[in-house]
Amino acid sequence: MPTLLAIGVSPRYESSTSRKLSALFVDSWRAAHPAGRVIDRDLMKTALPFVDLPWIGGAFMPAEMQSAESLAAIRISDDLVAELKAADHILIGTPMYNFSIPAVLKAYIDHVVRKDVTVSTDNVGLLTGKKATVILATGGDFSPGSPVEGYNLASGYLRQVLGYVGITDVEIILAGRGLAGDYGETAADAFGEAVALAAAA
Ligand SMILES: Cc1cc2nc3c(=O)[nH]c(=O)nc-3n(C[C@H](O)[C@H](O)[C@H](O)COP(=O)(O)O)c2cc1C
């Protein structure tokens, strides 16, 4: 069964560009995959701790040597990795914060990039055969040719880290008018077509 993992990041819900466009993506994906399954991973509703010492023990020590604390710390990471492995297509709908990604998305990435789990010891990504779509909502305009194009550290980082775990088929939709709603436009007007096309591909 085709499976979409939809990762939501923005805390703004109703007024969020990335969430509006992600909802449109999910609708289009469902229409193109009537028998498909959607896993909803809302990072605003996931209590994600940062990587700490027990987590590192859980990730790097053999299971039989782990403390109860480490076993508990690594459980959420195991659950998130299982979702990723189950998915054929991963949708990340995220704002740009301070030229990069929000801390909660970085915390998610730190949980799922794991040696011998999603990346081999010799740095070969293990999550092959998947695609990813990133909807990156920004206030500024970072489109190619813009004088501040190079300030966008989010696109390159996400492409690199997804590639590191083996997801190299990545489409990034730069929704660079995050404030459009404030001027009476809707995100779907500006970026809906690109989103629907990415979902149906
Ligand atoms: C804490 C914070 C930092 C932001 N940093 C940037 C930034 O560096 N560049 C930019 O273009 N927009 C920035 N913005 C604007 C958001 O990217 C923009 O409003 C986007 O639409 C937010 O996504 P959302 O609508 O899905 O919540 C920032 C917004 C917030 C709240």
Structural summary, described in words:
With 201 residues, this protein is an alpha/beta fold. It has a single domain, classed as Rossmann fold, CATH 3.40.50.360. The protein is built from 6 helices and 5 strands; from the N terminus they run E-H-E-H-H-E-H-E-H-E-H. It has helices at 17-32, 53-60, 68-86, 103-112, 153-164, 187-200; strands spanning 3-8, 37-42, 89-95, 131-137, 169-175. The model has no long low-confidence stretch (mean pLDDT 94). It binds flavin mononucleotide. The site of flavin mononucleotide has 16 residues, from helix 1.
Query: Major beta sheet, specifics?
Result: 5 strands, parallel
CA gyration radius, whole angstroms: 17 Å
CATH-defined architecture: 3-Layer(aba) Sandwich
CATH homolog superfamily: Flavodoxin domain
Mean pLDDT: 94
The overall number of domains is 1
Order of helices and strands: EHEHHEHEHEH
Number of strands: 5
The computed structural class is alpha/beta
Report how far the terminal alpha carbons are from each other: 16 Å
CATH topology type: Rossmann fold
Bin the strand percentage. Answer: 15-25%
